[in-house]
């Protein structure tokens, strides 16, 4: 059967093997999916070795998304724009095709949660690689305005100007956040250290949704903070499942049932 994997470092706790194995069962596809810890200094070598052993495609997670971007022979327009690749595929004439499904995965999960998108005021926290990957699909949903706020203001300003051709986009530091928002997405890695970006108390409009791209057994500090201020809260587990489904579709041309897998993961954590 065809082989797929997720490359990361570390990668031991990745849920991707479980997710893709269930997808394969659901759709009747015959494939194997494993987790491979690539060496930090030789991602390309690990990919080549995997292909030589029958690998047909891979997901790529931290810290290899930029290296995967450089390795691909052909990039999808959205991967080009994101500057990162989370999905590799061996294509025609053994050419390596690179795509990113993170952004579309986020938007699908937002839609599954009936999040305000079209005509909404959206605030995105953070201006790193993870945020660069979600801006194009968010702007494609036609929000009224999208603001990017980051600890290092210059990075948010730069990102906003890079995407300004796609919609009303502004950037600045956390101190530049004014007004209320219908959707606030935390794309910083602050949650990992249990930290909270400094945000105004009156951040959420009526019916607002707070989304953290991180997930864990417990709600993140950001989600707990948001819940106290009346926002509806959603963590990034669904985004993980949706981006996986998009990758699976690229590889196998079949759409798995993501809701069933999301429920399975929620029950087991
Ligand atoms: P990723 O791939 O997760 O986006 P990254 O490119 O290193 O990783 O970006 C991390 C993001 O989290 C950045 O926006 C970073 O802010 P800076 O650009 O100012 O470094 C943000 N971040 C990390 N730790 C943070 C903290 N404790 N408080 C606020 N923002 C934080």
TrEMBL record:
Keywords: Amino-acid biosynthesis, Aromatic amino acid biosynthesis, NADP, Oxidoreductase
Residues noted as binding shikimate in the record, renumbered to the chain: 14-16, 61, 86, 102, 215, 243
Pathway of action: Metabolic intermediate biosynthesis; chorismate biosynthesis; chorismate from D-erythrose 4-phosphate and phosphoenolpyruvate: step 4/7
HAMAP family: Shikimate_DH_AroE
Keyword Secreted: no
Protein's recorded name: Shikimate dehydrogenase (NADP(+))
SUBUNIT field: Homodimer.
All residue ranges annotated as the SDH C-terminal domain in the record: 236-263
Membership in a protein family: Belongs to the shikimate dehydrogenase family.
Domain (Shikimate dehydrogenase substrate binding N-terminal) ranges: 6-88
GO terms for MF: NADP binding; shikimate 3-dehydrogenase (NADP+) activity
GO biological process: amino acid biosynthetic process; aromatic amino acid family biosynthetic process; chorismate biosynthetic process; shikimate metabolic process
Residues where NADP(+) binds: 126-130, 150-155, 213, 236
Enzyme class: oxidoreductase
Alphabetized InterPro entries for the sequence: Aminoacid_DH-like_N_sf, NAD(P)-bd_dom_sf, SDH_C, Shikimate_DH, Shikimate_DH-bd_N, Shikimate_DH_fam, Shikm_DH/Glu-tRNA_Rdtase
């Amino acid at each position: 059967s065809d082989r797929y994997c997720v490359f990361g470092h570390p990668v031991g706790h990745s849920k991707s093997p479980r997710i893709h194995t269930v997808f394969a069962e659901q759709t009747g596809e015959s494939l194997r999916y494993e987790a491979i810890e690539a060496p930090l200094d030789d991602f390309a070598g690990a990919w080549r070795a995997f292909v030589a052993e029958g690998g047909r495609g891979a997901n790529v997670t931290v810290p290899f998304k930029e290296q995967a971007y450089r390795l691909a022979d052909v990039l999808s327009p959205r991967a080009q724009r994101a500057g990162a690749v989370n999905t590799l595929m061996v294509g025609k004439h053994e050419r390596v095709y690179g795509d990113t499904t993170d952004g579309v995965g986020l938007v699908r999960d937002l839609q599954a949660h009936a999040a305000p998108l079209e005509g909404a005021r959206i605030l995105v926290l953070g201006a790193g690689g993870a945020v660069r990957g979600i801006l194009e699909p968010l702007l494609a949903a036609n929000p009224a305005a999208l603001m990017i706020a980051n600890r290092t203001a210059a990075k948010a300003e730069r990102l906003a100007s890079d995407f300004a051709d796609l919609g009303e986009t502004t950037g600045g530091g956390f101190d530049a956040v004014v007004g209320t928002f219908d959707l606030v997405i935390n794309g910083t890695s602050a949650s990992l250290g249990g930290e909270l970006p400094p945000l105004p108390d009156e951040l959420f409009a009526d019916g607002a949704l707070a989304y953290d791209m991180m997930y864990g057994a417990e709600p993140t500090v950001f989600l707990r903070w948001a819940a106290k201020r009346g926002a509806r809260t959603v963590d990034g587990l669904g985004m993980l499942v949706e981006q996986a489904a998009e990758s699976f579709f690229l590889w196998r041309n079949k759409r798995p049932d993501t809701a069933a897998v999301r429920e399975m993961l929620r029950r087991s954590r």
